[in-house]
């Protein structure tokens, strides 16, 4: 046991009382704490009733909903390659809970607290052959205890930005031993692969496998019949205005909206028949109220989606989406897309959904781990706008120029198709670890 892991576990233990005190003021935090309190029993109960030790068990963990969707694509391919396997799926954020049943695992649950006692209890019952963390996040105590029991460890669909806090200071000090225990890392590109070696992963254990998110998004769109299939769904038929130029702004935060709304007003003054659908990343009552106050101040007519779903109402200039889970479908209505997060501290959200539908994508300058947005812009399917003025200018130019929009649309589709195959390559990496682990 590393001294660093003793410090890490002590910090985690001391933080739990403070989290419980804060929970009543933060519904999302509260849901997570309730789910984590039940996680050990949920996993142990399944293990005692369903675990078949003659079959390999793969435990896949994803932090939040985006990573869960990547895991879903990888699990789907792994199921084809290893139909005899049992699969456990855990997640950290409550946002992943709503899609956990779709991932394709035999059992799903919140990740238990990363403490020695909880990890040992779960591992002693599940006895996994392989644990696969997704994207960036690994849990040091779980990794240590699993490794002691002979479980192989992998990090798939992995990214590590150059400015990541994990590469410096306390994070690197505390998390380094966990990363060094990884048997394999499948990184989305060569730059990410190289950075993981700085965290202690042996270079021979790192390879480039690509990004399974492209496969997940492409597969879902294909299954739904593409744009025309999506538009035939009842909600989208209700909202569709074929003659309008529609801007769909997805996963927005207040920092995005304070720039986007004035830009939309300028476009509306010049372009006839333009409208906007805006979907906040977290449509909490306070966020929706603040957004609607901005729209009122700008003189824009607006209605919430819930008010429009029943039909019979004339569509306003701006539709405010007041629930989660439908943004990927709403992009099918877009002539242009704006993806939020790039003007604040949250980090840019996924540009893959609109790009896979052939929609030109605009986004702010703070990309975080979403480096595929940079590649999309280089390919001509998107544009990084660094200021409010640049957003207004670019939005107006694309709204007025149908030829440029068509060229960007084609470029976005070509870009997404060129990135397919990551799910299969990540699944192959896991399959090789299962093969190496033996019967």
Can you describe this structure?
A seven-stranded parallel β-sheet has the order 3-2-1-4-5-6-7, with helices on both faces. The chain has a seven-stranded parallel β-sheet with strand order 10-11-9-8-12-13-14. The protein is globular, with a radius of gyration of 23 Å. The mean pLDDT is 93. It has 19 helices and 14 strands. Helix content is 51%, strand content 15%. β8 (245-252), α11 and β9 form a beta-alpha-beta unit. By secondary structure, the chain is α/β, with parallel strands linked by helices.
List keywords for this structure.
439 residues; alpha/beta; Rossmann fold; 7-stranded parallel beta sheet; 19 helices; 51% helix
CATH homologous superfamily title of the largest domain? 3-Deoxy-D-manno-octulosonic-acid transferase, N-terminal domain
pLDDT averaged residue by residue: 93
Number of domains: 2
What is the CATH architecture assignment of the largest domain?
3-Layer(aba) Sandwich
Assembly state (oligomeric) = single chain
Low-confidence stretches: none
Sequence of strands across the biggest β-sheet: 3-2-1-4-5-6-7
Strand content: 15-25%
Query: What is CATH's topology name of the largest domain?
Result: Rossmann fold
Largest sheet data: 7 strands, parallel
Number of strands: 14
Estimate percent helicity.
40-55%
Q: Give me the number of helical elements.
A: 19
